[in-house]
Amino acid sequence: MQTATLVAISISGLLVSFTGYAFYIAFGQPSKNLIDPFEEHGD
């Protein structure tokens, strides 16, 4: 394979992996530990 093809596939794979991890943090099991600063602020 060409070097440019391998680099493009690697960068695309990293981007997809990072996006999947971000969705897991935002909506998965770890999201239970996140706090909402707007709910914590009492007016």
Automatic annotation (TrEMBL):
| Location, primary (coarse class) | plastid
> What is its subcellular localisation?
Plastid membrane; Plastid, Chloroplast thylakoid membrane
Give a GO cellular-component term: chloroplast thylakoid membrane
State the superkingdom: Eukaryota
Q: Which UniProt keywords apply?
A: Chloroplast, Membrane, Plastid, Thylakoid, Transmembrane, Transmembrane helix
Keyword Thylakoid recorded: yes
Q: What is this protein called?
A: Protein PsbN
The organism of origin for this protein: Viscum crassulae
For this protein's source organism, the top of the classification is: Eukaryota, Viridiplantae, Streptophyta, Embryophyta, Tracheophyta
